[in-house]
Amino acid sequence: xxxxxxxxxxxxxxxxxxxxxxxxxxxxxxxxxxxxxxxxxxxxxxxxxxxxxxxxxxxxxxxxxxxxxxxxxxxxxxxxxxxxxxxxxxxxxxxxxxxxxxxxxxxxxxxxxxxxxxxxxxxxxxxxxxxxxxxxxxxxxxxxxxxxxxxxxxxxxxxxxxxxxxxxxxxxxxxxxxxxxxxxxxxxxxxxxxxxxxxxxxxxxxxxxxxxxxxxxxxxxxxxxxxxxxxxxxxxxxxxxxxxxxxxxxxxxxxxxxxxxxxxxxxxxxxxxxxxxxxxxxxxxxxxxxxxxxxxxxxxxxxxxxxxxxxxxxxxxxxxxxxxxxxx
Amino acid sequence: xxxxxxxxxxxxxxxxxxxxxxxxxxxxxxxxxxxxxxxxxxxxxxxxxxxxxxxxxxxxxxxxxxxxxxxxxxxxxxxxxxxxxxxxxxxxxxxxxxxxxxxxxxxxxxxxxxxxxxxxxxxxxxxxxxxxxxxxxxxxxxxxxxxxxxxxxxxxxxxxxxxxxxxxxxxxxxxxxxxxxxxxxxxxxxxxxxxxxxxxxxxxxxxxxxxxxxxxxxxxxxxxxxxxxxxxxxxxxxxxxxxxxxxxxxxxxxxxxxxxxxxxxxxxxxxxxxxxxxxxxxxxxxxxxxxxxxxxxxxxxxxxxxxxxxxxxxxxxxxxxxxxxxxx
Amino acid sequence: xxxxxxxxxxxxxxxxxxxxxxxxxxxxxxxxxxxxxxxxxxxxxxxxxxxxxxxxxxxxxxxxxxxxxxxxxxxxxxxxxxxxxxxxxxxxxxxxxxxxxxxxxxxxxxxxxxxxxxxxxxxxxxxxxxxxxxxxxxxxxxxxxxxxxxxxxxxxxxxxxxxxxxxxxxxxxxxxxxxxxxxxxxxxxxxxxxxxxxxxxxxxxxxxxxxxxxxxxxxxxxxxxxxxxxxxxxxxxxxxxxxxxxxxxxxxxxxxxxxxxxxxxxxxxxxxxxxxxxxxxxxxxxxxxxxxxxxxxxxxxxxxxxxxxxxxxxx
Amino acid sequence: xxxxxxxxxxxxxxxxxxxxxxxxxxxxxxxxxxxxxxxxxxxxxxxxxxxxxxxxxxxxxxxxxxxxxxxxxxxxxxxxxxxxxxxxxxxxxxxxxxxxxxxxxxxxxxxxxxxxxxxxxxxxxxxxxxxxxxxxxxxxxxxxxxxxxxxxxxxxxxxxxxxxxxxxxxxxxxxxxxxxxxxxxxxxxxxxxxxxxxxxxxxxxxxxxxxxxxxxxxxxxxxxxxxxxxxxxxxxxxxxxxxxxxxxxxxxxxxxxxxxxxxxxxxxxxxxxxxxxxxxxxxxxxxxxxxxxxxxxxxxxxxxxxxxxxxxxxx
Lengths: 328, 328, 315, 315
Ligand SMILES: Cc1ncc(C[n+]2csc(CCOP(=O)(O)OP(=O)(O)O)c2C)c(N)n1
Ligand SMILES: Cc1ncc(C[n+]2csc(CCOP(=O)(O)OP(=O)(O)O)c2C)c(N)n1
Ligand SMILES: [Mg+2]
Ligand SMILES: [Mg+2]
Prior knowledge:
heterotetramer; A: alpha/beta; seven-stranded mixed β-sheet; five-stranded mixed β-sheet; 39% helix; C: alpha/beta; five-stranded parallel β-sheet; two-stranded antiparallel ribbon; 11 helices; 7 strands; 43% helix; globular; binds thiamine diphosphate; binds magnesium ion
């Protein structure tokens, strides 16, 4: 049975449509998601399919409509909110940190909050300092919020379906560079991808490379190139950061003795530091070399193609650092 | 010449008063900072001394008055803003991340932003889930914002003076448990404490313990106890997180071979992970044991004294972990 | 509408409950902080008297009155102050964070203005799920200046949602008088900026509050959207524990105390022949007994198990 | 006030500048995205004609017109689009993020609503430092629904600050018409909720804009506080690069094009005998030459030095 090849965007849309068809309490809310189909076209066509009651255009009021969505999720519906850019996470950070993430712990089992916030992160399109950021590290430090970050169309679909069915608040990170990427995606509407299971992109003994979202796609490409150079990488796509599949990471590091983490965010205080730290805590003895982090420098992301590219991780930089780590 | 002994609160107030006297462009802004003197009394009396034009009570509009303060700092004044609790940082996170921290990098030298945001972090007073948090890890991941976190009255004064004189946005972290603490504080209004220089609290060869803010005070106490048990800790108070005195940390770890970091925030994605990671990067060979992190678990902070204490680091827990690390 | 004496009794209960909490704090029996609603009792009691069983409330930091008026159990509330396992939040929430979804009380909120969008969200669900219910949001004059208030009101207007915004204007946000915090004397006028009715209500007149909420609720249920009710009242207590109230005079407070909602309603009910001094004394004694029982329940309850500390973040 | 022909010329310059940018994007000469202000030229030109040299502007994402009208150099702006070292932000900012504090242009802003509090802050400084100047904030109808707008307006009101809020109501926020985003047809009415005047202005009439801003500025300078001017206009272009404009009809656009501010002002100036077809053709040619020079300057400028990538985060 051959799978269809569709784009990451189409896969997301399919997940939304299937879950909306399956569960009437699921609705979409966000800026310009109706006629416009969202800034990146993810919800295109869903207005026609599900109507204005379930595909709700909002005014530009991110804190307000996120708080509203939390209130809705507390009272019997399942909102899927689109934040136009992940750079706007700070605008809703209070709602997520101080409300959504604390409800169940404080108010107990009565207080479910089945909320999904979707937002595209990442650079590569020259959108400049306030439309290119990845901020998942903030959420990692915010108890009670799950973080999902698919890097393939199949995962985009399967993980979004899981997110919508999840009883807890989920931040669902998409990526501008991934939207047009195409790959096989199962049609079966019952298939979901579970949280907390890293995906092995490539099997190898020389070095473990960990990434997520667009960086995972880059690592996937870099691993192939490395193979040609005789370096065999064990490449992991984390898929979800909360929960995080540390078992897979630790098992891989135990095998390779070398770890490199690729993160599309500013270096200091990023997710990579947490992963590295956990590996040190759990597999200290197995490391034959220091962990390497490939990240952005601690600067805003420029609009100019030249400066943007200079700051971002790339396949070449991944290869160079991997070679360095293996040789070092 | 004997120094006066005053409280951390008084030291902060003295710094504010001295800098306001020295520079007319310095003004204070925040909720209930005038007659009330701020929720913790830091600005008490300054209204009488400097008048309502320079001690400005705000409506409850954190994003608005923080944005306003940025606009003021862009145009010739030096606002010192009080955020009543550090838990409200998310409300102004957009202003700090997407504006204050990016102005100079993007607009160049014309775009100075000499802004100070003061806010008390921390638990220990049973204020519950939304009035007890430390969120400096978010700012650590936000380029362009300096982070200052004094643990003694003298540093409170000297660092706040430096913060007010600094040409860049500074987040100045105070702590509810530190406010009443008393110690010697220089009277000389010309004395400041520079950023980026850790303070050695205790000299030792067995273990490096790194902390900041209230946790540094706890570590200071724990180090004395450890000494009685024959364990000699090299205890460092970082004083500022951006810039961070990694030289001091690395030098200490090279001496002791063991590192423990105490952080009053949820574990995952915290500042401790970054410090640990940097130490691994720079002093990998010197570590005789894995780095230990003593932090909160990944949960909201409860209001109940019992549950709050169970979650927080304490002198006892510091001692236990240090012994464990030294023995291990 | 509940009967007059029940409402009067509830106001007295809220008063005694708050006074008891303040005493327990000053004695060191309970820790943390609290925001008493002393003097504002007519607002929650008047509001809740107009609500139906399916209606939903979001509350703020000054929420004991809201919760009690909606049917919260004084014993479990008291236990929350004592940090006991039987407390509404098992000791995790404290004064500001208790909830009972079963009676439509969606909880307090420690972030000023944070509960306004959630109320609109509850109203959204009600409309989406075609349930005949309204959401009610309690917030203060200070919270009215938060951006979330603006956004939430506009969202409710644009989508014509069944929500009643109850602004408890108790003259101060902490130490800041309304005149220093808002460009207008009546916050109710802001409703016009969203296209729905806004009304100033005598928030110390419990029946006036009930009447206004009743109409607003009807409006909401018949699909005509939100209403803003600005209930003018006065906080007789300090803002929170340990507030020296330097920002106002004792004389101002004494004057307010004379027209407090309990004093006023007692006079009304007496004039109507529904209450006399002996009956009032009985009622007060009964309330005091109830509060004493709540305290006893709290004191006798077990502490939460520290082993559960990390449980319950996720389902 | 600048003379009529200068203002007319500036409107034409903005129009040609935006059209050129759009062409450069579609040819792939420049990367990223841009928000053209085509059709809205009378607002920035009318506003800036009323300002004094010390006045300060905060702009938003759709800011090329604001910057040009305030005296921004087309060459350095164009160079910013090309990511060149000579661009206002040396390639770091792109379309939305350029500034020239020297001429009182405090920069664009990528966060909708983000620039409203900063304008109030600039007004705060002006008052604090006792400088005779006002701050002007440009923001859209969509931004009016952000919480920061509410907070900033209320703060300006409470402190009686010298700021003029210029809401460019171009009928849409991206694809969302005002009627779907706000509970009221005229956003100007919201000023009443803060206690200062709000006025609807014909935003396609450059002289009407100047007159309204002139009065608001006088008000501000004489210590009577802020004013909200809602300038009704129309965005003729798409929201940003690649907007298929599915949310409105081509007929609606064609109708709007007929009453665009340039068409209207040309008719006015012709009627006044200040302009005729040959003079207009000359003027347009001159503007085109200016834009061509800007493009040439940008193309011939060097790229920034990648070695400086990490410089300039702190002083
Ligand atoms: C976002 C935020 N800012 C500030 C506070 C601190 N705070 C708690 S209550 C309060 C005053 C609120 O005033 P109002 O809304 O009038 O309610 P009231 O206390 O008068 O009932 C303040 C400033 C907070 N909890 N949250
Ligand atoms: C906080 C935030 N939300 C959303 C966006 C995406 N966005 C950019 S411009 C825009 C529309 C703004 O509408 P309006 O304020 O009317 O200005 P206009 O574009 O019409 O000039 C949107 C939604 C953004 N940049 N920032
Ligand atoms: Mg109040
Ligand atoms: Mg618009």
